[in-house]
Amino acid sequence: MVNVPKTRRTFCKKCGKHQPHKVTQYKKGKDSLYAQGKQCYDKKQSGYGGQTKPIFRKKAKTTKKIVLKLECVEPNCRSKRMLAIKRCKHFELGGDKKRKGQVPTRNTDLTINGTE
């Protein structure tokens, strides 16, 4: 599991020096209905004739590469850049830090069969 802090001091290209950056996870934008490929596909799909293009079904990867979006917190800069990190199944942003030598605590306030 990868746990990344919500702020990070790193180099800002616009400021030309290390600055604190706000870290968020990159998210894909909504697909445009007016992109050329989408228009061609919709035109071809319309009418009778079933599915016209192949549907990919041989996915090889089980994870995606995590992309961080870094935004400079300097008020008159606010430049943004992307930073790709390695693949991982579980990604957490700003979670609790692990302490060395401590036993992980579990929530034991669960009720069993309706009795406390």
Automatic annotation (TrEMBL):
Could you say which protein family the record assigns here? Belongs to the eukaryotic ribosomal protein eL42 family.
Q: Where is the composition biased (Polar residues)?
A: 104-116
* Keyword flag Ribosomal protein: yes
- Write out the entry's keywords from A to Z: Ribonucleoprotein, Ribosomal protein
Q: Spell out the GO cellular component terms annotated for this protein, sorted alphabetically and separated by semicolons.
A: cytosol; ribonucleoprotein complex; ribosome
Instruction: Please give the name of this protein.
Output: 60S ribosomal protein L36a-like
Q: Which GO terms describe its molecular function?
A: structural constituent of ribosome
Q: Which organism is it from?
A: Octodon degus (Degu)
| Ranges for region Disordered | 95-116
Question: What InterPro entries does its record include?
Answer: Ribosomal_eL44, Ribosomal_LSU_eL42, Ribosomal_zn-bd
Q: A GO BP term, please?
A: translation
